[in-house]
Structures are given as C-alpha cells and as structure tokens.
Amino acid sequence: MLKTTILSAPKRNYVNLDYARHMPKDYVDRMKRHVPTKVYDNRFGAPPVHRWAVPPDDYKPLLKDFNDGSRILQAKRIWEMEAFHERLERERDHKSALLSVKFFRKRRRLVPQMSAEHWTIFPGDQVEVMIGPDRGKKGVVSHVIKEENAVFVEGLHKKLVETVPEEVMKTYELPQTAMFFEQPLFVHKGEVKLIDPNDNESCFAKWMLNEDKTEYVRVSTRTGYQIPLPQAAKRTYEYSSPDNYIEVVGKDTPADVALLSTYEPKLSTFEEEIEQEMGLAKRGTKDEKNLERPKTFWY
Question: Which parts of the sequence belong to the KOW domain (predicted)?
Fold first, then answer.
C-alpha cells in the first residue's frame, strides 16, 4: 500500500533542472577536483578512507578586484577558465599541505546553497533586476549557478573588464581593450525577481500542485498565477528539446520499453530466485554435487 502511494505521488521534476544538467556529471566532478585520487579500502570492516585532490566540503569564494577599486563576488561555472584555475590552485595548496607541516585550512560556506524547493529561476526566464544602474529593467536569464545562488541576465548588470592585463598591453605598446561582462545577481539577496506573466510585474514564486494534483508548477505568491517553465530550462547535454531527441538504434532503450513494468515481486531472496530460474539445487542439501555450506568464523 505504501509503495503504491509513493509510486503514484506526483514527481518533483524541477529538482533535476540544474545548470549543469546539460554537462556529464563525471566531467563536472573532475573539473571541481572532487574525484578521489586514491581510496584505501578493505580495512577489516572500517569505512574506506579517501584521498581527495580537493576536499568536497572545501569552499573558497571567488572575488575579483576591478580598476575602479570595487571588489565583487563572482560566480563562475566550474568549467570556465577562471574558476578552474582557482580549483587548481586549491589542489596545489592541499597537496603542499599534505607533504609538509603546513595546515590546510578549509573554507566554509557562509551562505548555504538554496534548496531545490526554494529555487524557482531557470535559464530563459523573464526577470527584473532589483539593484544597480539597471534597477527596474527586465531581461532574460542566460544561465544560473545554483551552487552560488546566482543568475546572469543577458545584457544587464554589466561591468567593464579588461580583456588583457595592462602590463602586457604596455609592453607591446598597444591600447588597452575592455569588454562588458554580466555580473552575477544573487537570488537569496533579492537582487533579481521573476516576472509575473499576468500583469508583467516582478514577484516571488513557489512550487505548488496543480488542480489535478498530477505535477508541481510555479505559482506567483502575489497573484497566484502560474508561471510556466521556459524551454531552455529543459535543455540537456544530449538534446535541446526532449521532443526532438533522436534515439540511437542498438544503443538507446526505446521509451515505450523502458516504461514497461516487468518486475514481479516474489517471497524469496536473490539467491533463491537465481536457483529457481537456472534449475540449481538448493543450497544446504546433501548430494554429490552440492554439499552443505561450511561454517564461517570471524576473528
């Protein structure tokens, strides 16, 4: 009864709508340096010991200084060059601390990452900037970084950044070049809000069950109007739209076959099921081919 209730419950599909959903998870973990370099296992019942390139619970904020004297907290996707170089430096410091008497100080996250229940902004959403010179302007979210509670809006909240260091340009006697880059807007600080399609005004949103109680939808907390998910939020590494995905014959299991319920519960253990399917004699019986299992002793 409980199993039937759980299987029939509406799925929280919005939990899987991550910024890195279109990237392979093993690639993202490698870029984060969160893959263990060595695992010490078989420790006589004790849990295995992992040696990490960078401890998974280590967190170092990425701060950037600008020519105007400002220092802004950055949010970068882990495969971007700046963030990747920062992780390589942390890996170098961690290895150096292991080989010497220095102490590696782990950094802790001051502001926790927002849970999937409270995250309601995705790529392609219409939002309004609430701070800075672009306050009150509306734009489209280009990408989000859930780990930093940050979103980026196309063409808004920009900062002029030098593309090449000033010393290098002076060496070759070239004029300094700079470009505008979008800066992160942090959702937990209220720096950006969703646009309610009912009246085209800013609002907060939450996840609620629809009228049929079949799926969760985004609803404006101010008007109660449903805010549909943009198509860009469903983009993955393999396809831009689930409807346009082309199955690879011989490698992909067809959807109609994968959705078939083929499991038949039985009141037997896994070993007993194998014995029944392959016609093996039951363990524990005395015959010429299958003797009793010997006793096992632990010291």
Answer: 120-147
Q: Can you tell me the distance from the alpha carbon of 75 to that of 63, in angstroms, rounded to the nearest whole number?
A: 9
- Tell me how far apart the alpha carbons of residues 253 and 260 are, in angstroms, rounded to a whole number: 11
**CA dist., res. 127 & res. 146, Å (int):** 16
Distances (CA, A) of 298 to 42, 46, 294, 295: 15, 15, 13, 10
pLDDT in tens, 109-165: 777 888 888 899 998 899 999 988 888 899 999 888 888 888 999 888 888 877 777
pTM comes to: 0.70
Q: What's the confidence (pLDDT) of residue 68?
A: 60
* Rounded distance between C-alpha atoms, residue 66 and residue 72, angstroms: 8
Q: Which CATH number, 1.10.3720.10, 2.60.40.10, 3.40.50.10490, 2.30.30.30, labels domain 2-236+253-278?
A: 2.30.30.30
- CA-CA distance, 174 to 162, in Å (whole number)? 13
Residue 54 clears pLDDT 80, i.e. is over it: yes
Do strands 205-209 and 49-52 pair parallel, antiparallel, or not at all (unpaired)? unpaired
Question: What is the C-alpha to C-alpha distance for residues 33 and 289, in angstroms, rounded to an integer?
Answer: 52
More confident: 279 or 294: 279
